Amino acid sequence: MQPGTSTSVVVMGVSGSGKSTVAAGLVERLGWEFAEGDEFHPSENVEKMRRGIPLDDDDRWPWLRRLADWIGEHEDAGRSVVVTCSALKRTYRDLLRDGHPSVWFAHVDADRELLRERVERRTGHYMPSSLLDSQLATLEPLHEDEPGATISGAGVPADVVAELLRVLAAEREVRSAG
Questions:
Q1: Structural domain count, the chain
Q2: Which residue has the higher pLDDT, 116 or 156?
Q3: How far, in Å, CA of 102 to CA of 50, rounded?
């Protein structure tokens, strides 16, 4: 990473992929500020998901703009960050990186069975497993021209984070703090 530049790692993927776990591991290793993208959802979105109703683009745009603003504030201040966001479509990712060259996507991927098992086991989250299929149907994998990489989230979290850090070091010259 060039001196004076920042990196904003957007840990993306469907529910149950391990976004929050991977992001926590990155924050621990890098010492960067963290934001849980779900916390940027307006209450209407949370309630809709809690009732098992998939969000549509009109629901997502304000949420994504809030995340993009947060990224921009930190980028302008020269601070590197980690943020979780499903970022399922190319258009959503384009909005997040529009005017923000610091953005780099870490797509945490896993097979449908593992995702469903994780979502069904999870407690304290408003997203029901019934919405997993709609997320998978919406997911557009990273395109070659998008900054980032796809990492398997099926392994032990420490190994997934280590692999992600290896890729970040190669692509963005990011080094672990410890």
A1: 1
A2: 156
A3: 33
Please report, in angstroms and rounded to a whole number, the separation of the first and last CA atoms in the chain: 17
Contacts of 45 (CB under 8 A, 6+ apart): 55, 59, 60, 63
Mean pLDDT of 117-125: 69
Task: Report if residue 178 sits inside a domain.
Answer: no
Helices (H), the chain: 19-30, 43-50, 57-76, 90-97, 112-121, 132-138, 157-172
Closest Cα to residue 16, out of 142, 109, 99?
Answer: 109
Q: Provide the whole-model pTM.
A: 0.89
CA 41 to CA 126: how far, in whole Å? 12
- Mean pLDDT, the chain, integer: 89
**Per residue in 142-170, pLDDT tens?**
999 999 999 999 999 999 999 999 999 99
Asked if residue 60 is part of any domain, the answer here is yes
Does 38 reside within a domain?
A: yes
CATH, residue 21: 3.40.50.300
**Which residue type, as a one-letter code, is found at position 14?**
V
